[in-house]
């Protein structure tokens, strides 16, 4: 689908809010490469093609100089703030680049792949399902 068609589906005058999270887990045995690049590229795309405004995009990365680290509590807080600011019809986007994992689902006696919950892994390893 072309960008123009996507923009046409987003109502004019409505806010476009985004929370972008990139975790490279630098200097750990779980280190990744490119997750911060992913969210920076997504931020550029949202600004240049999809009409998001810079002040409506929250960027959390685990770079040493990042003002807000993507800990479990900071990610939750950022998502709550995005929802609090939203009005009916607004566009909300959450983009995550980092490790994920599977956890046993609550109340399941026999565990299968289908009965597990997915979780994202913030930089402090405080999982979010």
From TrEMBL:
GO terms for biological process: proteolysis. One of its GO terms (molecular function) is cysteine-type endopeptidase activity. Transmembrane segments: none annotated. GO terms for cellular component: cytoplasm. SUPFAM superfamilies: Caspase-like. Coiled coil: none annotated. Belongs to the peptidase C14B family. This is Peptidase C14 caspase domain-containing protein. The lineage of its organism: Eukaryota, Viridiplantae, Streptophyta, Embryophyta, Tracheophyta.
């Amino acid at each position: 689908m072309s960008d123009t068609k996507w923009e046409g589906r987003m109502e004019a005058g409505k806010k476009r809010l985004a929370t972008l999270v990139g975790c490279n887990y630098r200097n750990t045995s779980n280190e990744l490469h490119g997750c911060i690049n992913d969210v920076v590229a997504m931020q550029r795309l949202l600004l240049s093609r999809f009409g998001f405004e810079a002040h409506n995009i929250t960027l959390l990365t685990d770079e040493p100089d990042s003002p807000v680290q993507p800990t479990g509590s900071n990610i939750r807080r950022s998502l709550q703030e995005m929802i609090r600011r939203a009005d009916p019809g607004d566009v909300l986007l959450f983009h995550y680049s980092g490790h994920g994992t599977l956890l046993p689902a609550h109340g399941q006696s026999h565990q299968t792949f289908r009965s597990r919950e997915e979780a994202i892994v913030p930089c402090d390893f405080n999982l979010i399902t």
